[in-house]
Design a protein that fits this description.
By secondary structure, the chain is mostly beta strands. It contains 2 helices and 13 strands. It has one domain: Immunoglobulin-like, CATH 2.60.40. The N and C termini lie far apart (about 70 Å).
Length: about 180
């Protein structure tokens, strides 16, 4: 079976677009809350008698672009921020996932209700390459709590730029900016 050259040239584009749709990521460049497209994540309402005995605020740097040569030349990046529950027995609750831009202003709040992160589960937030509002100094502030002693989650961001001429990727790790113990 022979295909016209035009059809063969469109095939990578069609495959690329359908891969975005199947992955549950909107090709529009919008950042989605993790529970919207990850079926293992569920939102909850914390009971009035819920008593958090441990929690943290974690700062995670993520770059929507990086500069090369000079400030007028930049490479756009896609980023994935992962929040990994490292506790093998207990769930944690994500209570806030705030995305800030280079100027420090809030760009988006991605956690409207607490999200249950089951033992050993991961929540991912994808910042599409076309979403450039964050800039080179973008960051997430992640807040979590638990009603039992747990091992703290691991938070990392992976940034990539892939293309015909060059590929690059790098990782940044979150740092704890506030520890919460015995909070109500």
């Amino acid at each position: 079976m022979r295909f016209p050259l035009k059809q063969l040239m469109l095939l990578p584009l069609i495959i690329g677009l359908s891969a975005c749709e199947h992955a549950g990521i909107e090709p529009s460049g919008k950042i989605q809350s993790p529970e919207v497209w990850q079926s293992h994540l569920k939102t909850t309402t914390l009971a009035s008698d819920f008593h958090a005995i441990v929690g943290q605020t974690i700062y995670v740097p993520i770059y929507s672009h990086i500069y090369h040569e000079d400030p007028s030349k930049m490479t756009l990046l896609a980023g994935t921020m992962s929040i990994r529950n490292t506790d093998a027995k207990n769930a944690i609750y994500l209570t806030s996932i705030a995305y800030h831009g280079t100027d420090g202003k809030l760009v988006d709040e991605l956690c409207k209700q607490p999200i249950i992160l089951e033992p050993m589960a991961t929540a991912d937030i994808v910042v599409p390459r076309r979403h450039t509002e964050g800039g080179s100094g973008a960051n997430f502030l992640v807040k979590w709590v638990a009603d039992k002693q747990v091992s703290p989650p691991l938070t990392e961001a992976v940034m990539i730029s892939a293309g015909a001429s060059r590929n690059l990727s790098f990782v940044s790790r979150g740092i704890v900016t506030e520890s919460i113990a015995g909070v109500k």
